[in-house]
């Protein structure tokens, strides 16, 4: 008996070719579409038995958010991820999001079909050695690399962050003071504290460090001063 399924992949040609091959093997393919903002909603609305979801970067944070949404709204839908040569972390992320399996992009159609059938039956559709590595990653996750930008941001007060953003925008002490509604001497003190906390000797070095570590991308833009009545 054929499986009612959907194919969703970054590469439309791959999705359509895979869908065609599965149709020839007796399966009912509801749709073959490239991932987009509404991809998860499409799967939820069509409610297939199995969804084949393609990904190019399985270890990227948030890459499996569609899986989370699908499983939350349609827990009966089994999601099998199609991805590159997997790493334990990538497979762990897929299973942590609620996926039922992981199949390599270069897998033969017979292997894809076996994964589909296993997923529909409620089994883990992944090679045992890969599954073992994934569970090992889930139980003992590797330490995340030090995020220097976040670490530096936590060292600064909200007002000092605003000063740093203004420094990076090229504002001098007078403009910083006017923009923040404070005295120039207070603005100068804030600048010196920012330089000291960041361990740099000049405003230019502070701006360069903030840009290099991504600190500016995380900072809230300074608010315009309140208009005078």
Automatic annotation (TrEMBL):
Q: Does the keyword Transmembrane helix apply?
A: no
According to its UniProt entry, the protein's GO biological process terms are:
phosphorelay signal transduction system; regulation of DNA-templated transcription
State any single GO MF term. Answer: DNA binding
Instruction: Name the UniProt key words of this record, in alphabetical order.
Output: DNA-binding, Transcription, Transcription regulation
Q: Which InterPro entries match?
A: CheY-like_superfamily (IPR011006), Sig_transdc_resp-reg_C-effctor (IPR016032), Sig_transdc_resp-reg_receiver (IPR001789), Tscrpt_reg_LuxR_C (IPR000792)
Domain (HTH luxR-type) ranges:
149-214
> What Gene3D superfamilies does this protein's entry cite?
3.40.50.2300
Extract the Pfam families matched here.
Answer: GerE
Q: Where is the Response regulatory domain?
A: 4-120
Can you say what this protein is called? Answer: Helix-turn-helix transcriptional regulator
Lineage of source species: Bacteria, Bacillati, Actinomycetota, Actinomycetes, Kitasatosporales
